[in-house]
Amino acid sequence: MFSFPDDEVKPILAEISKISSLNAGPILIAIDGPAGSGKTSLASQLSNNLKSVTTIHMDDLYNGWEDALTATLTQHLNEWVINPMTQFQSVHYQKFNWSTNEYGPAVEVRDIQLLILEGVGAAQEIIRQSAVLTIWIEVGPQIGLARVLNRDGDQLLPYMLKWQERERAHFLKDQTKENCQIFIDGSNTQIM
Description:
By secondary structure, the protein is α/β, with parallel strands linked by helices. The chain is built from 7 helices and 9 strands. It has a 5-stranded parallel beta sheet. The termini are close together.
């Protein structure tokens, strides 16, 4: 887990507070960036400082390694997250089980007030259309890879090298970084 400095987190919290005061319906915030940039850590820091927050991790929505950043994910985001939220309904999604390499039973999230969607692909175009705030965390590929392997184990190295190619292609095609509202340098975060 990483810890972002207060001077980076406090302005985001202030912006979320301002947005919350102006919106009656559920609020969607997306945190995106390369693997190992600290998206989960930032989501956790924000959640710890806000009320009524639900976090959905993109790792739970991917259809395995090979079908993660594809039209399947975009379809699932639309069906599982966007459509229900815009209709003020519960979000239902199937959580991917990385051990069995298949989706598990459906997860239901009710009464969403503030949803943080975090992970690679979280701020893709279909999400940006509904999100009130999008955050990009930048980190170099070597630092990101080292962090992931440190967190999840060296056995992931061949998967992660392919993943980094896929995420670069996804970000380039989607122009994710260029279209996010807030930019954070994740290379200077502190390991906790």
